[in-house]
Model the fold of this input.
Amino acid sequence: MTLFTDTQDALFDALRPQAPDALLGLITAFRADPRPDKIDLGVGVFRDDHGATPVMRAVKAAEARLVADQQSKAYLGAEGDARYTELLAELLLGADAADEEHLAGVQTPGGTGALRLGAELIARARPDARVWIGTPTWPNHMPIFRAAGLAIQPHAFYHRDTGGIDFDAMMADLSDAMPGDIVLLHGCCHNPTGAGFGADQWRDIAALCERRGLIPFIDLAYQGLGDGLDDDAAATRTMLARLPEALIAYSCDKNFGLYRDRVGALWVQSRSGAGAAIAKGNMLAIARGLWSMPPDHGAAVVRVILDNPDLRADWMAELDAMRIRLNGLRMALSACHPRLAPIANQRGMFALLPLSSDQVIAAREQHGIYMAPDGRINIAGLTIDTITAFARGIVPYLNI
Ligand code: LMR
Done:
């Protein structure tokens, strides 16, 4: 006998079909393309002059130490590796950050885990808070906040035609935010545009948040890949110095090249030490229900590197070289066409080309150039050799 009958709806038939993730789908599409001169400018991974994404030297050395020295893989708990979070806080916020009692941090599975945990924390604390997000943004931002049940409020940010930020329009939009609303900000190296605020603009944003009681949620996924470790942290430091409450989602995916190991952290700044302790307790309770405990390996690698002066120095040197390569490619690309000129002054891994979705498809089909559907390119995917072929494929669209 069975209780499954023809009249009972099948559980999974109730689901709606989902389109594959447009960005991650590029990985498979590129691999399947047999053309030898294809160019992968899709998903955001750093590539060297040979198109490879090598494991960083310091990471390899730290992994060897872990294999030799690690005595146990017993659970660490929902907080993950506390020393890792402490060292990372110092790297991001300065030497005293780990002792700052208004600040609470936990390890998370990647920057995505940090964003989701922060979103769930906000939803618990203030379910009616709106999250203001400048457009365009990383395509995963909005789904993450929506999944936590929060309302999204898009605001002006970038002008695709000028390749610059429309700061006045953004500030005008944000002046409609209600006290207690959240403002999502890319701490450096904006994804997908590469466009960044100047120091004065960051001060204006901080002042607006202060005036209107808005809480910044800073997403920092590229520290060290824009202008350097301290310069890329400067905006986050400005915001935290000026505002009593803030959240920071951090990713080590790109600056330590640990993509698939999923290494991130979430910090909250609270008005008081007691508030930070309560926030941390809630972060741990939420994390327990989401992933129970974050994966250890990548965070342990980062801890070993940051705790050892030699490995740390070697990591910083390699990161410097990565940044220099990216900014060199930016200069070369910006010289290819006047409409690409803004790329020279933008930072990080990405630029958003002024292309229509049809042109993005045509570039893939006719020239084997793979980029995100919105026209975002991963600059690191270019080499001095492929830039010419890339420009030859793209420039005709820019002249239309
Ligand atoms: C990207 O934007 O390409 C990366 O952050 C990868 C991702 O998860 O989308």
User: Anything to note?
Assistant: The chain has a mean pLDDT of 95. The chain has two domains: 22-55+311-398, 75-307. The pocket of (2S)-2-hydroxybutanedioic acid is lined by residues 23, 43-44, 138, 140, 191 (CB under 6 Å). The CA atoms of residues 63 and 69 lie 10 Å apart.
